[in-house]
Design goal:
Distance between the termini: 24 Å
Oligomer: single chain
Number of domains: 1
Largest sheet: none
Strand content: under 5%
Structural class: mainly alpha
Number of strands: 0
Radius of gyration: 18 Å
Shape: globular
Length: 302
């Protein structure tokens, strides 16, 4: 790994980890639907000039419907889910559940695409899912907060988002083969914008959000969505999809750090143990440890 690729990897993890904190800052004022709409629309506007400059607009036009559908399942609905969760649970906790995305991606690849599930990948799924379920159980039943039902629904929303990410990975592999990565990213954000347009406008806040909320939303759209996609696809080009997916391990680290530093969120032992279990399981599923000859399962974005 070159120094530039290492910097790209760390910056991407910092941006995607920071997205959970910025959602916590802007969702209370914008609401989940309006936040999600403005985030994907801003990211699409950021990437469109890059797409045109690379001459990949014709590729997007040819596969527009399929790419747009991925935008609904990989951006619109998951961002709604995480926006809803941001009203009830911490940024660090949401990021730990998001780290389970490759686990669900492996399940869809096994059930739908017929990818082989060897003993190491099966063990990884068991370990990772045990971490997810154990952390959810601890948060809802062992150490519940004031609103147990709200916490349970928020965790359910996070897990639904990761299932959608996993489905989108399998669908993209099956239906979008040969579509340039930048075309897929830009088109999916435009598809998400179209899907969220009516809900986002209907839920537009009656009171104008403050400057901090607008700034958080701008960072979400331009940096955590637009710039992050550019970095991710550059890492895939330079390192390959499997090595680029190592960002999965770093996102919760940054998310918990940002939440602790800027929002005063607690980092509990249960979060650390759950995160460690998911990371170990993901490493086995991705074939990063021990080295396995399996198809890569890429990470979804948050």
């Amino acid at each position: 790994m070159t120094a530039r690729s290492l910097i790209d990897l760390l910056l991407l993890a910092a941006l995607w980890g920071g997205s959970f904190m910025f959602m916590r800052l802007c969702v209370p004022e914008f609401g989940p639907a309006t936040m999600a709409l403005l985030r994907v629309a801003g990211g699409a506007a950021f990437l469109l000039p890059v797409l045109v400059w690379r001459g990949q607009w014709p590729a997007l036009r040819q596969r527009g419907l399929a790419v747009g559908f991925v935008g609904v399942t990989n951006s619109a609905l998951p961002f709604l889910c995480f926006g809803y969760a941001a009203l009830s649970i911490s940024a660090g906790l949401a990021s730990v559940f998001n780290a389970a995305t490759p686990l669900f991606g492996a399940i869809f690849a096994w059930l739908w695409l017929g990818e082989r599930l060897n003993r190491w990948r099966a063990l990884g799924l068991l370990i990772g899912m045990a971490g997810v379920l154990g952390l959810a159980w601890n948060k809802v039943f062992v150490n519940p907060g004031a609103d147990r039902l709200g916490t349970a629904l928020a965790i359910g929303a996070c897990l639904l988002a990761t299932v959608l990410f996993g489905f989108s990975l399998a669908y993209s592999k099956r239906r979008l083969a040969g579509v340039p990565a930048m075309a897929s990213a830009t088109g999916s954000l435009f598809g998400a914008s179209a899907a969220l347009l009516l809900p986002g406008l209907l839920a537009w806040p009656a009171t104008l959000p403050g400057a901090r909320a607008w700034l958080s939303l701008a960072v979400l759209a331009l940096l955590c969505s637009g710039l992050a996609y550019v970095l991710y696809f550059r890492l895939i080009a330079n390192l390959g999809a499997t090595n680029a997916s190592a960002v999965t391990f770093l996102i919760p680290v940054f998310a918990m750090a940002w939440g602790g530093i800027f929002l005063g969120e607690a980092i509990t032992l249960a979060m650390l143990l759950g995160c460690a279990s998911i990371v170990v399981g993901t490493a086995l599923v991705l074939g990063l440890w021990p080295r396995q000859r399996v198809g890569p399962v890429q990470q979804g974005s948050s």
